[in-house]
Amino acid sequence: MQHFDEKGFWKALLEFSILATLFIVSAVYATYLQQMLQIKWRAWLTSHYINKWVSNKKFYHMQVIEQNTDNPDQRIADDVNAFISQSLSLFLGLMSSVVTFFSFVGMLWVISGPISFNAFNIKITIPAYMVWAAIIYAVAGTYITAKIGKPLVKLNFDQQMFEANFRFALIRIRENSESVALLNAEEKEHQNLMDTFRYVFQNYWQIMVRQKMLGWFTSGYNQIAIIFPILVAAPRFFAKKIQLGDVMQIASAFGQVQSSLSFIVNSYASIAAWYSVVDRLRTFEKNIKAIEILSAKAR
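Structure (tokenized):
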């Protein structure tokens, strides 16, 4: 437009229209295909667990023999769905981080250049030092995040159990409403429900506190990451080996590489919730197999 090139303008507009159409189609079908995979995967996994739970009266044996599996109905109905949706979300996020890393690490390797310094009268040169700085920064952040967020795995596991226990207590009153009314047991049942809910409240409060601690660190980690590459590149800039434009390019490429390497840091709360769901399904499967072994020995 600056050169009044009308022909070039319409050509560029046509190219944009084609690219925009392709983007719209890919965005719509990406969501559609993800949802299709999610519901088909859930249908298969739900059928798998229902078959294992219902066959050979294992649902009864689990109540009598193996009592460590709380709320198997909740594990089949909610945990399977949560496992699939969270798995897909984390997998797509991981794939995006991998693609971003390989897209920008080569650029950062080229533009960051080497850095030299003396240590114990020995000259040491580190090629593409900004790449190594990004890796060290991300590894340190991941380690600290894991130390802070580790308790979230058990807390999320317990939260699922307490929520299911509370929901079961509510259903039990509905199913036995006539008995409760005839016995005038409303006050007692109210107290039982609040006692059950107290576990939900207390555990959720602990999750809030732990997530706040994790939030303090991850927020600080991501903010420091903005100025960290500038601080690391500053020695070469003040030595007049690179220009200000090079510093900005390094900071931009560093941000992309560091962000892709920080997938665990930025997704740890989701990973902890996912792992707790996996653990509940794993113990459910383990206890079903234990019942199968006991049934085989009893024959």
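The CA atoms of residues 5 and 41 lie 53 Å apart. The chain has one domain: 86-298.
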